[in-house]
Specification:
Length: 299
């Protein structure tokens, strides 16, 4: 079976500006990107069907038997089982959302999500987790992080933190090899904590789970982290961060507050920068929607 993750057009537009530079499945929630999650569950590589200008970087591979999977849907065992039982030419739906469809070579080459008309249709027996809007990335981050933690750490043994650290609920802490942590407080009583390979947590940092830290990332001295928070790979973070996702390759390394936010790649937040999820007039927080060309409520 050949696996392809596709971009639903409306979802891709709703996730702008993040998706200007990446397919939907390359967004990170929890520890892994959605593509990485699917590849772990499928135990197979997946190619990507996306906008034509992104297709140059994110390649598409088509074979005689193809399973096209919605790149905004997060996998789990139940969903994997239903997709595995999908007959050829049949589509799998959750409500009005196309979750997966099995197509031959010609059908896959001609597939256009925006114009697709389903043939045989099966309704999903569960409600999957879907990343449909930018705020879903941090509001659903706790669920995604706990699922990824179980996926990545099952039947594995964590590296031991040194005795310079204070670790609460150590059974919920997993430290990859070559990570460095000294003089920190890790409280996994509120959710799991995952520290990636070659990551560093400097002295005086205090972390409350759920929390994930990608490879080669650094948490600077005195950082205060409230979960559910994800710091992607190759990132420097400091100051105070709460319920946020930094996709990777970015810097929020100085004092200041970042909360209920998504930070893309190759971003740099200056010293003493602050944001808030509460407006001074207590009005509803809204975000610009590129598809609707207006501000929409973030809930």
């Amino acid at each position: 079976m050949n696996y392809i993750l596709f971009d639903p057009p409306e979802t891709w537009e709703n996730l702008l500006p993040l998706t200007f530079t990446r397919p939907v499945c390359e967004i990170r929630t929890g520890i892994l990107t959605t593509r990485e999650k699917w590849e772990k569950f499928l135990q197979s590589k997946a190619s990507i069907l996306t906008r034509s200008y992104l297709q140059t970087k994110f390649s598409l591979h088509i074979e005689d038997d193809n399973m096209l999977i919605n790149g905004s849907v997060l996998p789990d065992d139940s969903l994997l089982n239903e997709i595995g039982n999908l007959p050829a030419g049949t589509s799998l739906y959750a409500g009005d959302t196309l979750v997966a469809i099995r197509l031959d070579r010609a059908e896959a080459a001609a597939f256009d999500m925006g114009k697709y008309q389903h043939g045989d249709r099966v309704t999903l027996s569960i409600t999957p987790i879907v990343i449909a809007h930018p705020w879903d990335i941090f509001t659903l981050n706790g669920q995604a992080l706990e699922a990824d933690f179980q996926l990545l750490t099952k039947n594995r043994v964590s590296a031991e933190p040194s005795n310079t650290n204070i670790v609460l609920n150590p059974e919920n802490v997993f430290i990859e090899s070559d990570a460095r942590i000294e003089g920190a407080i890790l409280n996994a009583g509120t959710g799991p904590i995952y520290i990636g390979e070659h990551a560093e947590i400097m002295e005086g940092s205090a972390v409350r789970g759920p929390f994930a830290m990608g490879e080669y990332s650094t948490l600077k001295m005195g950082a205060k982290i409230y979960g559910p928070t994800t710091i992607g790979p190759f990132t420097r973070a400091g100051g105070e961060i709460k319920n946020s996702v930094i996709l990777g390759n970015s810097n929020k390394g100085h004092e200041g507050f970042l909360g209920h936010s998504v930070l893309g790649e190759w971003c740099n937040i200056g010293a003493d920068s602050n944001n808030s999820n509460l407006k001074n007039n207590y009005a509803e927080v809204k975000l610009w929607n590129y598809r609707e060309e207006k501000f929409v409520s973030t809930g």
